[in-house]
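User: Show me a protein chain along with its predicted structure.
Assistant: Here is one chain, sequence first, then structure tokens.
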Amino acid sequence: MAEMYYLSIMASPPRFIGSEIFRGSSYGQWHPLRVPRVSTVMDLARAMDWLPSGQYITAPRAKPAALHLWHAADYIAALHRAEIIHVATPADTARFDIGSVTNPVFPEIFRRPATAAGGSLLAGELLARGGMIYNPAGGTHHGMPGRANGFCYLNDPVLAMLSLRHHGVRRIAYVDIDAHHCDGVAVGFAGDPDCLMISVHEERLWPRTGPIEDDAGESGINLPVPRGLNDSEMAHIREALILPQVEAFEPDAIVFLCGADGVEEDPLAHLSLSNNAHWDILRTLMPMAPRLLVLGGGGYNPWSVGRLWTGVWATLNGLDIPDRLPPEAEAVLRALRFDGNRRGKNPPEHWFTTLRDAPRQGPVRPEITERVAWLRAAAADGRRFGRVPRTTPAHRHRLPDRERGVRAGGAELRVRLGTSAALL
């Protein structure tokens, strides 16, 4: 009977959470998040006739009370204040990093992240009975309890996982393949025995957290990878590390953060993946738990992000991705601009006419196999970490005192969630 129920809920159509607030919203003329992302995915999916109204949900905007589940009330008040007065006070910049170069004040500085967070909170409620939900606006995994961090004003993955917990979902596997380490999520769930965090991220890249020996209080597996990571290497990581660890954990839900900054064309990272690598990981994770939430994350080339994240939606729905896009979808991609970056001056034709990249395969380097083998051995040994592989750079990053020890998943934070109507 339990197996039949599982098959029934996973057979229901996936749901897409989006909002028009992301159309035209920009962090500023020269900020990496000046490019359209979520609106491109919505437009492409509709141009492909992949997004019927019955599968689309408009994201609600989370109220401050919902955000206080993890974020400090004075920080949320400062974020809201900055949107009203269109500027951050010197005190707010110094204390909360609002109005800095990386976390600027822009017209929707509160409404935009609160809408992404509202979508993730709602997803946690809707997934109580199982299924699959896609919130491409989510994935702001750097947000800290009391400050903006790395383009992230809130931390919607943490809020989503708290929402899942409130609605009866205990064991959560969080898999993050963004090029940047999920430092905010690690702060939220370090030491939680019912949470497994797996992060595959570029070594030495900001925020320079997540070294291989950091097990997040025995709740995390961190795999920093060298520049130039190719599809073959990611396939090895998927088969030898990600899938076995998720299977052994037996999660009630999987949260998959599918950042698009690992593809070769991204301007901020230095990896060499094609979007096939992301879709292959998603495809293999889909049957591994009765609940799946897929989030966006990083990605700063408008064509790479739009094509990859639209392919995520196709993968969730089991749709065939055509070799050539129809004219309506091609028009969406041809209308994009990437001002201020050399990649936007003469884009290759396949960025307009296809979703699928050519595979970027290559040799699996010793750095990859040694690190994966070491992590597997450490996990099998109860994650008692010993000598770090010699190929791994030793680097540690100490979190500020105000953020160390803040946990979302354990007894140090008692979550009191109400109904969605009260929070969103």
